Amino acid sequence: MRDIATPTKTKEILMKHNLQMKKSLGQNFLVDTNITDKIIRSSDINNNTGVIEIGPGIGSLTQQLAKYAKTVMAYEIDQRLLPVLEDTLQDYSNVHILNQDILKADVSADIKLYLNDVEEVIVVANLPYYITTPIIMNLLEADLPVQRYVVMMQKEVGERLVADPGSKSYGSLSIAVQYYTDVSQVMIVPKNVFMPPPNVDSIVVKLEKKSDLPDVGPIKQCFKLVRGAFNQRRKTILNNYQSVFVDGKSHKESIKEWLLEADIDPKIRGEVLTLEQYSKLNKLLNNYPE
Ligand code: SAM
């Protein structure tokens, strides 16, 4: 089988199966093998790797993954694509297509079932953009045996993942993802390598799981503090905490004291604080009201 990720081959497959792409499912298929090659190279795949793909589409990236990996397990929500994938990936016996919504799948159980004989599990995907954040957060929070993620998404969202404190894109998502992984940018991807081209530019980012998670105190409470600080981006941390804590207004002085005890100026904004600083605040706080 020739490479699927070309305009000619993609058109041929769509015609053969009389397939109309669904915008509502984020169906923008890759039609440039330079991009699939670069994704494969930055994923460090070898013949002992198990790959989880989200949204194989017509198999453009799946085909390349199947060439290099031991096994590929791919979640595709669109039932119409099953016969297409059966056709386009017929040469690869190491691919398991699961017709499931990734947000509802039991990925941990599926890894045990399909990827039990691999040395390393990784996620490689051109994600459906409309659910990028829930996909990433669900997978990270599920504590899966996944070593790294090489994922394509809308550029604006990817920039939030790699953002440093103080930058425009930095927010609670940056902090949450950087708590679990070391994040780096692989490449910016223009619109014209997709069929049909999406409205936005894309980015590929790599998330490498940290060997030890940082000690931030009670984790749920820590993320509540982070989200609280970004409640209204333009407000100071003191003002934000005054409005998110129950009775915060009447406890202005004690909130101020608590911030000062953690060496944080109450007049700064949450967007300049690092995870370490939130963690310090968290450890000084006994319980955050539900
Ligand atoms: N991997 C292909 C490529 O690079 O050409 C297709 C990527 S396309 C951006 C996203 C794919 O995700 C589509 O095939 C779409 O049907 C699928 N998808 C959308 N929502 C999904 C969900 N909740 N669970 C699993 N797959 C989903």
TrEMBL record:
A molecular function annotated in GO for this UniProt entry is:
16S rRNA (adenine(1518)-N(6)/adenine(1519)-N(6))-dimethyltransferase activity
Ranges of residues in domain Ribosomal RNA adenine methylase transferase N-terminal: 35-211
Please indicate if the UniProt record lists Disulfide bond as a keyword: no
Q: Known catalysed reaction(s)?
A: adenosine(1518)/adenosine(1519) in 16S rRNA + 4 S-adenosyl-L-methionine = N(6)-dimethyladenosine(1518)/N(6)-dimethyladenosine(1519) in 16S rRNA + 4 S-adenosyl-L-homocysteine + 4 H(+)
Recorded hits in InterPro entries, A to Z, give: KsgA/Erm (IPR001737), rRNA_Ade_diMease-like_C (IPR023165), rRNA_Ade_Mease_Trfase_CS (IPR020596), rRNA_Ade_methylase_Trfase_N (IPR020598), rRNA_adenine_dimethylase (IPR011530), SAM-dependent_MTases_sf (IPR029063)
Q: Is rRNA processing one of the keywords UniProt gives this record?
A: yes
Which compartments is it annotated to reside in? Cytoplasm
Got a GO cellular component term for this one? cytosol
Q: Which domain of life is it from?
A: Bacteria
Predominant location: cytoplasm
- EC number(s)? 2.1.1.182
Q: Which residues bind S-adenosyl-L-methionine?
A: 28, 30, 55, 76, 101, 126
Keywords of the record: Cytoplasm, Methyltransferase, RNA-binding, rRNA processing, S-adenosyl-L-methionine, Transferase
Going by the record, the broad EC class of this enzyme is transferase
Homology family: Belongs to the class I-like SAM-binding methyltransferase superfamily. rRNA adenine N(6)-methyltransferase family. RsmA subfamily.
Role, per record: Specifically dimethylates two adjacent adenosines (A1518 and A1519) in the loop of a conserved hairpin near the 3'-end of 16S rRNA in the 30S particle. May play a critical role in biogenesis of 30S subunits.
Q: Which PANTHER family match?
A: DIMETHYLADENOSINE TRANSFERASE (PTHR11727), DIMETHYLADENOSINE TRANSFERASE-RELATED (PTHR11727:SF7)
Q: What is this protein called?
A: Ribosomal RNA small subunit methyltransferase A
Gene name linked to the record: rsmA
